[in-house]
Specification:
The structure holds 2 protein chains of 2 kinds. By secondary structure, chain A is an alpha/beta fold. Chain A has 2 domains: 4-267 and 277-300 and 398-477, Amidase signature (AS) enzymes (Alpha-Beta Complex); 303-387, no CATH class. Helix content of chain A is 38%, strand content 13%. Chain A has an 11-stranded mixed beta sheet with strand order 1-3-2-4-6-5-10-11-9-7-8, sandwiched between helices. In chain A, helix 5 packs parallel to helix 6, helix 7 (221-231) packs antiparallel against helix 15 and helix 9 packs across helix 11 (353-366). The longest helix of chain A is centred in the C-terminal third of the chain and has 24 residues, at 372-395. Chain A is globular and about 65 Å long. Chain B is mainly alpha-helical. Chain B has a domain at 5-42: Orthogonal Bundle (Histone, subunit A), CATH 1.10.20. A two-stranded antiparallel sheet of chain B has the order 1-2. In chain B, strand 1 (79-80) and strand 2 (83-84) form a beta hairpin. The chains are: A alpha/beta, B mainly alpha.
C-alpha cells in the first residue's frame, strides 16, 4: 500500500472493497497520521479513535461475511464541528454549546456512513462558521499546513487543513459565503459548494438558511465528485432539498473542457488581486484556452456589490437563527433571577466577539427604520445579480474567477479589521447569493510556495459539467498535494 | 462614521446581548465602518426582490415523527417531568426593568 497520506478516497474504497487492505488497517494509518501532524496543525476539535476502530472492525466483519460496503468503503472522513452526529458533542466552535450532545445525525453524514465511511473526528471552525481564518474559534487556532504562521482559511479551516496534511482523504464542510472554497484555496485542495438544495441541510447548524450548503473538501476532483454523489439528493427532513434525481458525477468525468464556453468577468480588475495571484490567474486563463475552452467576456456589474449584500442578508438571517441560543433548551445557561437577564447574560458570555458583531449587524439591518434601506435594498441587489448571472449563462456554460484575491494571510493580520476580512470573500459570495454550484481548484503557487486557486461556477444543478471542467483543469495542471509540512510545489 | 453609542445599545437590547463598555465602543466604530461600506448598495442595479426571502420548497410538507421528549430534555440545563425549567418571566416591582422590545 502506498503512503497513507497520499491515498485518495477512491483508492482507499477500492482497496478495502476488494479486500486488499482491511478497514482496520486504513483506520490505524489514519490515526497514526493524525498523531504525527495534529500537535502542529490543530485541525481537530475532537478525535474519536475508539469509535473509528469499532466502526472499522464492524466493516471488516461485514466484508468477510460477503457484504458490499459501499462507495466509501473504509474511507476515513473528518467533519466540521457544525454537523450533527447522534450521541456526539457538537460545539460549532462556540462556548454557548457547552455540554450539548446532538440527538440525531445529519443526513449527509448518514449517507456517508451507509456507504461505508469511517468518521474519525470533528474539525475546527470559526465560531458558528462566521469567519475566514478559523481565528474566531473559541477553542484553538488551526495552522496552514503550507506555512504554520498562516491561517488555513475559514470557516471550514480544520476540514481543509486535515485533508491538505494527509490526515484524511476527505472532509465535509459548510459553505455560506465561501467557507468551503476559501479554505480549500488557502490549503491547496479542492472544495465544492453544491447548488443550493442539492444536499440536505438537515443536521447542519444553521447560519444563514437561504445560503448554507454542505460541501466536500478533497485532494482531487474525483474524490469531490464521489462525495457529492453520496451526499446529494432529496430528504424529507429538509424541504429545501431538491427532489431532482442525482446524476453520476464520476461517469464522463474525464471528458475534459474542450468546447465549453467559459465566461470571464469584465468587472474583475487586476487591481483586485495580489501580484502573485494576478500571475497565476493569467496563467489559468491561458490554460483554460489551451484546453479548448472558448473564452467569452461577460459583464456582472453587481459583482462588486455582492459583499455588501451578502453581509446584510447573511447576518440578518444569522441574527434570527442564533436567537435560539438563549440558555433555555440547550447549551450554556447563566443562572440569573429573571428570564430576560438569563437570555442576555447566557448569550453575552457564550458568544465570541465576531458572532456578537454579526448578530448586531443583522439586528440593525432588520430593525425598524433600517429594514428598507438595508435588508430590502440588499435583496434588490441580489435580485439584480441573479438577473445578470442568468443573462451571462445564456452565453456561457461556466464562469471562471480567482477563488480569493490572494493566498493565505498571516495569523493575526486581519483579526482587528473585520471589513478587510469580509472583503476577502468577494469572489465566493455570489454563488451563495444566487444558489449556484462552484468549485475551488488548485491553480499554482505564489513566490512563498503558498497555494492559489481558481473558481469555476456553473448553472444551478449543472455539477456534471462543473466537475468535468474542473477535472480537465486539474489533470492539465498535474497538481499533487504533497502532505509534507513545508511542501512547495511549482505547478508550472 | 462611528455609530452613536445610544444606537449600539438599542441594537444590543434588541439582540438580547449585554455589551461591556469596551465592546460598545469597539462595535460603534467597527459597525460604523461596515455600515458605511454597505451604504454603497445604492449604487447597484436592483431588480424587484420578493416580499420575503423565498426558498424553493420541493418536498411535500408531511407530518413525521419527531424526537422523543426525553431525548430533547437531555440537553436542557434544567428540566422537570416533561418541562424545561426557566427563571420567572416577570420581574418583581422595583427590580431592574425587563428588556423592552420596541423593534
Amino acid at each position: 500500500m502506498a503512503e497513507f497520506a497520499t491515498l485518495t478516497a477512491v483508492e482507499i474504497a477500492k482497496l478495502v472493497d476488494s479486500g486488499a487492505v482491511a478497514a482496520a488497517e486504513i483506520t490505524e494509518r489514519c490515526l497514526a497520521r493524525i498523531d504525527e501532524c495534529e500537535a502542529r496543525i490543530g485541525a481537530f476539535l475532537a478525535i474519536d479513535a475508539e469509535g473509528a476502530r469499532g466502526r472499522a472492525a464492524v466493516l471488516d466483519r461485514r466484508r468477510l461475511a460477503g457484504e458490499r460496503l459501499g462507495r466509501l468503503a473504509g474511507v476515513p472522513i473528518a467533519i466540521k464541528d457544525n454537523l450533527s452526529v447522534a450521541g456526539q458533542p457538537l460545539t460549532c466552535g462556540s462556548r454557548i454549546l457547552e455540554g450539548y450532545v446532538a440527538p440525531f445525525t445529519a443526513t449527509a453524514i448518514e449517507r456517508c456512513l451507509s456507504e461505508g465511511a469511517v468518521l474519525v473526528g470533528r474539525t475546527n471552525l470559526d465560531e458558528f462558521a462566521m469567519g475566514s481564518s478559523c481565528e474566531n474559534s473559541a477553542f484553538q487556532l488551526t495552522r496552514n499546513p503550507w506555512d504554520h504562521e498562516r491561517v488555513p482559511g475559514g470557516s471550514s479551516g480544520g476540514s481543509a487543513a486535515s485533508v491538505a496534511v494527509g490526515a484524511v482523504p476527505l472532509a465535509l464542510g459548510s459553505d455560506t459565503g465561501g467557507s468551503v472554497r476559501q479554505p480549500a484555496a488557502f490549503c491547496g485542495i479542492v472544495g465544492l459548494k453544491p447548488t443550493y438544495g442539492r444536499v440536505s441541510r438537515s443536521g447542519l447548524v444553521a447560519f444563514a438558511s437561504s445560503l448554507d450548503q454542505i460541501g466536500p473538501l478533497a485532494r482531487n476532483v474525483e474524490d469531490a465528485a464521489l462525495a457529492l454523489e453520496v451526499i446529494a439528493g432529496p430528504d424529507p427532513r429538509d424541504a429545501t432539498a431538491s427532489t431532482r434525481a442525482v446524476p453520476s458525477y464520476l461517469k464522463n468525468l474525464e471528458e475534459g473542457i474542450r468546447g465549453m464556453r467559459v465566461g470571464l468577468v469584465r468587472e474583475i480588475s487586476d487591481g483586485q488581486l495580489d501580484p502573485a495571484s494576478r500571475n497565476v490567474w493569467r496563467r489559468s486563463i491561458r490554460r483554460l484556452e489551451s484546453l479548448g475552452a472558448e473564452l467569452h467576456e461577460i459583464s456582472i456589474p453587481n459583482l462588486e456589490g455582492a459583499i455588501a449584500a451578502y453581509y446584510v442578508v447573511a447576518n440578518s438571517e444569522a441574527s434570527t437563527n442564533l436567537a435560539r441560543f438563549d440558555g433555555i433548551r440547550y447549551g450554556r445557561r447563566e443562572r440569573e433571577s429573571t428570564l430576560a437577564q438569563t437570555y442576555s447574560r447566557s448569550r453575552s458570555r457564550g458568544f465570541g466577539i465576531e458572532v456578537k458583531r454579526r448578530i448586531m449587524l443583522g439586528t440593525f439591518a432588520l430593525s425598524s427604520g433600517y429594514y428598507e434601506a438595508y435588508y430590502r435594498r440588499a435583496q434588490g441587489v441580489v435580485a439584480g445579480l441573479r438577473r445578470q448571472l442568468e443573462a451571462a449563462f445564456e452565453e456561457v456554460d461556466l464562469i471562471a474567477t480567482p477563488t480569493t484575491p490572494g493566498g493565505a494571510f498571516r495569523i493575526g493580520e486581519r483579526i482587528e479589521d473585520p471589513l478587510a476580512m469580509y472583503l476577502s470573500d468577494i469572489f465566493t459570495t455570489p454563488a451563495n447569493l444566487v444558489g449556484l454550484p462552484a468549485i475551488a481548484l488548485p491553480a499554482g503557487s505564489d513566490d512563498n510556495g503558498l497555494p492559489l486557486s481558481v473558481q469555476l461556477m456553473a448553472r444551478q444543478f449543472d455539477e456534471v459539467r462543473l466537475l468535468r471542467a474542473a477535472r480537465g483543469f486539474e489533470r492539465d495542471l498535474a497538481w499533487r498535494v504533497v502532505p509534507a509540512f513545508e511542501g512547495v510545489i511549482d505547478a508550472d | 462614521m462611528a455609530l452613536p453609542l445610544e444606537e449600539v445599545r438599542r441594537i444590543a437590547t434588541l439582540a438580547r446581548l449585554e455589551l461591556s463598555a469596551a465592546e460598545s465602543l469597539l462595535f460603534a466604530e467597527q459597525l460604523g465602518r461596515v455600515v458605511d461600506y454597505i451604504d454603497q448598495l445604492g449604487r447597484f442595479e436592483t431588480s424587484h426582490p420578493p416580499e420575503a426571502c423565498l426558498m424553493p420548497l420541493e418536498a411535500p410538507d408531511a407530518i413525521a415523527a419527531s424526537l422523543a421528549t426525553e431525548v430533547v430534555l437531555a440537553n436542557a440545563p434544567d428540566s422537570r417531568e416533561a418541562f424545561v425549567v426557566v427563571p420567572r418571566i416577570l420581574a418583581s416591582p422595583g427590580a431592574p426593568s425587563e428588556v423592552r422590545d420596541d423593534g
